[in-house]
Design goal:
By secondary structure, the protein is of the alpha/beta class. It contains eight helices and nine strands. The structure holds flavin mononucleotide. Flavin mononucleotide binds next to helix 1 and strand 4.
């Protein structure tokens, strides 16, 4: 088994790590942007694909990866895991449908509520205690489903039904559809950028470069919020215009 994931602020990485620690301690996990990710999928029969919900959809970067490597999925058993800040009718189903088209066998899906990674919106801000509680509950859910998967071979089917499909579509995806059909060109870098390069080295798309001491976006942003949540001077925004509070999984634990 192999775990493949996209994670901007660490939520999805944590959830996948926890699930694998229960169902297959020997399984490797690898970020989707790793040059070996395709080879790893090819050499494993079972894959857990984990990603954050974006606008009730699968992030374009993940869909692009699935489609560009369309020939590797035939006969693979794939379990889809998504994390979300609040709601995702069929966050798992969005990738599952594309994977099925390429011949994958979908074994199940799970959607886990985690802290919201959009840290440039006041509306989505939660207190430290609230985020800690959300993570505690997420961990409990993963333990529950992980034990069922491992001990009983019972895989959850969250987000994969027709009803979930309609809920995802009507709840959000339709209204924001145009935001998830390509990489984003909307990343903003303010004059406070000090050109430290942290964003450039962490971007899963290699979308950012440093030129003349400032970060520049090449308009291929995966909207993962990794750069926004780790910029030391809070110079980067995407959906909002000001970083309210940087959100990263490790800030809420320990
Ligand atoms: C661009 C963007 C869109 C998002 N859309 C949704 C959404 O539609 N529903 C939801 O519940 N959470 C949404 N979220 C929140 C993330 O899915 C959630 O915080 C996730 O756990 C982040 O995982 P990560 O830390 O692994 O990147 C969105 C986050 C971003 C950055």
């Amino acid at each position: 088994m192999i775990g493949i994931y996209l994670s901007g602020t660490g939520n999805t990485k944590h959830c996948l790590e926890k699930l694998l620690s229960i169902i297959d301690k020997d399984a490797k996990m690898i970020p989707i942007e790793d040059p070996n990710s395709v080879e790893e999928i090819i050499s494993n029969d079972e894959v857990i694909l984990a990603y954050p919900t974006q606008f009730s959809n699968v992030p374009f970067m993940v869909r692009d990866f699935i489609n560009k490597n369309s020939n590797i999925w035939k006969g693979k058993k794939v379990f889809c895991m998504t994390t979300m800040g609040a709601f995702s009718g069929d966050g798992t189903g969005c990738a599952a449908r594309v994977l099925r088209k390429h011949g994958a066998i979908i074994t199940g899906g799970v959607m886990i509520k985690m802290p919201d990674s959009v840290c440039d919106s006041k509306m989505l801000k939660k207190s430290l205690d609230e985020n800690r509680r959300i993570i505690r509950e997420a961990d409990e859910k993963i333990e529950r489903i992980g034990n069922n998967m491992h001990n009983l071979g019972k895989y959850p089917q969250e987000g994969l039904s027709f009803i979930s499909h309609v809920a995802g579509l009507m709840g959000q995806r339709l209204w924001f559809y145009n935001k998830t059909t390509d990489y984003s060109t909307k990343l903003k870098i303010s004059d406070s950028c000090v050109g430290c390069g942290k964003c450039a080295t962490s971007c899963p798309m290699e979308n950012l470069i440093i030129s003349d001491g400032k970060a520049i976006s090449n308009n291929r942003c995966a909207m993962c919020y990794r750069c926004i949540s780790s910029c030391p001077v809070k110079a980067i925004t995407l959906l909002g215009n000001e970083v309210v509070e940087q959100v990263r999984y490790e800030k809420f634990v320990g």
